[in-house]
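The methods section describes the discrete structure representation at length, but only in general terms. What matters is that the chain and its backbone geometry are given together, residue for residue. For illustration, here is how one protein appears when written out as sequence plus structure tokens:
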Amino acid sequence: MKTGSDVTASQLGRPQVRPLVQAVTISRSLPLAGQQIHILKDISFDIEAGEMIALVGSSGSGKSTLRGILAGIDAPSSGRLVIDEEDVTGLNENRLALLRNRKLGIVFQSFNLIPTLTAQENVEIPLYVSPYAREARDRAARMLELVGLTDRRRHRPHQLSGGQQQRVAIARALVTEPKLLLADEPTGNLDSHTGEQVLDLFESLRQQLGLTLVIATHDNAIAARANRTLHIADGRLVESPLKV
């Protein structure tokens, strides 16, 4: 006879909550000079909805490769990646582009804003190929308001500070309402004060929008504020315990 602690959620009639991200024995190898170079080796982890995860590792550790796999830009050589209950491992490029547009937001270290467009127009871009195309102007304006840039929406990137450009990039990544936000060294090009403001913004958006964040970083301040750290070393994962 099962005790109360042995009874599962499904047996009680409650839906089981699955992790937002499930990585199962992911490996990545590349041929070089007739040999296989093993970049990632049997990496497995789950990410729960609403977590803030710091992805850290030294140069050459495999961190960038793992970040690319999570973003649907790279593919693992073996293993499985499930995002929002969809196995994305074998998707073709069209399906991956749809995944990136509907479920993922990506913030690049160099911002990647289009210099000839205003902040408003830069934020609107992902909406043109989404179900929200007709709402592009209003949705972009609301997102710029959320990141505190309503008064800069008609400015072009060269008229904005580094921190303001970062906020535009964050607004653009979030305007399609993704479930997972991936940020690459979001404070790397910013001074310490502006970097702290960006971290405060991430935390505010996580609470307001229920975001799940994975932030690739060398910044100890980000790792200190994350729920967990996924530390990549020599292609393998060392995961810190959950913080309380």
Summary: Confidence is low (pLDDT under 50) at residues 1-10.
